Amino acid sequence: TSRVAQHHRSVPDGWLPSVKYLIEELGVDPNLRDKDGYSALHHSAARGDNETILYLVTKGADVTLISRRGQTTADLANSPEQRAQPHPFTIALLEKLGSKNNHQCRSCGG
Predict the structure, then answer these.
(1) Domain count, the chain
(2) What is the DSSP letter of 13?
(3) Which residue among 15, 34, 53, 86 has its CA within the 20 to 30 Å range from the CA of 75?
(4) In a domain, 63, yes or no
(5) Residue 56's closest CA among 89, 8, 104?
(6) How far apart are CA 76 and CA 50, in angstroms?
(7) Domain membership of residue 69 as a residue range
(8) pTM for the complete prediction?
(9) Which helix (H) or strand (E) element contains residue 52?
(10) Is residue 83 part of a domain?
């Protein structure tokens, strides 16, 4: 992993000022992915962080990226893990922005 990719991996911990620093000061590509194919948008979606999602999109982040596991950004907002709850407002935002929702919520029951 390159140094830039290592810095970009701090984005999942989610502070908008950190994301802004990485993109605006260090010039990190907002579409950079980790080893599993997840982008900063995927990680922001999993947290329901709409503010960071909107910022990343203004900086050129692609909402249609798919991870190596076949997960879209909307899929991550839709609780891909049993221990997490879905983020309905984030799902709606990502769908509006063009992300596909595969409706694979594991914590929704049924």
Answers:
(1) 1
(2) G
(3) 15
(4) yes
(5) 8
(6) 13
(7) 3-97
(8) 0.81
(9) helix 50-58
(10) yes
